[in-house]
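Consider the tokenized backbone below.
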């Protein structure tokens, strides 16, 4: 099988390039994976044929056209689309229903896995405190212990407060480009140490199980619902 992975930013691509092979390590036949990073999440437009600037690489803005194109071009049963995006402060069930509606409106509909990191992808990194400590031995134990998994609290800021000198406040003062680089650095440094079987993040477990189901690989944990 081949997986087309759509993720909303560069740091997500860095994380998934390490995590997906770990998750699918036991597959009888390793799938091929191509990961496409976008420049933010954006918003789902109204209508499948919304006119958009082709150069605007924002994931949700382009998602209707992308899914429609994949449905028409991908070999049925041999390729799947994996859409990984942050939930942010959206209602999980309503957002998932909207995403599934986009897929179902395609003719034909591509095989698609929607993965929502709750609240942000950094929640998946925070789901493995041991990996954070291995990558950043001076990480703040106070911050890591205070974080409640998959809570909507400004997740990347929590990770910044744990591992970045001066915390999230200092990082924000350096600007958006510095924040983006820091997120990619965290993904690069932490994911090699992560144990995908013991992650505390329910949204990560749902992603892991969904990914394994696509390739016919069983998961030992009880089924985890995507939305709490």
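A designed sequence for it:
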């Amino acid at each position: 099988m081949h997986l087309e992975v759509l993720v909303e930013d560069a740091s997500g691509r860095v994380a998934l390039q390490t995590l997906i092979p770990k998750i699918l390590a036991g597959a009888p036949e390793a799938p091929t994976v191509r990961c496409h990073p976008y420049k933010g999440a954006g918003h789902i437009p109204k209508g499948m044929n919304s006119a958009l600037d082709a150069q605007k690489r924002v994931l949700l803005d382009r998602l209707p056209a992308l899914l429609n194109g994949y449905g028409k071009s991908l070999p049925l049963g041999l390729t799947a689309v994996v859409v990984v995006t942050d939930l942010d402060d959206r209602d999980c069930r309503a957002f998932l229903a909207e995403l599934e509606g986009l897929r179902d409106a395609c003719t034909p509909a591509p095989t698609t896995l929607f993965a929502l990191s709750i609240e942000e992808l950094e929640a998946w990194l925070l789901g493995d405190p041991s990996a954070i400590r291995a990558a950043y031995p001076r990480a703040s134990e106070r911050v890591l212990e205070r974080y409640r998994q998959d809570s909507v609290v400004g997740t990347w800021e929590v990770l910044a407060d744990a591992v970045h000198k001066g915390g999230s406040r200092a990082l924000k003062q350096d600007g958006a480009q510095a924040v983006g680089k820091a997120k990619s650095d965290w993904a690069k440094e932490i994911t090699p140490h992560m144990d995908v079987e013991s992650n505390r993040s329910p949204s990560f477990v749902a992603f892991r199980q969904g990914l394994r189901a696509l390739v016919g690989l069983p998961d030992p944990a009880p089924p985890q619902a995507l939305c709490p």
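Residues 59-73 form the longest helix (15 residues).
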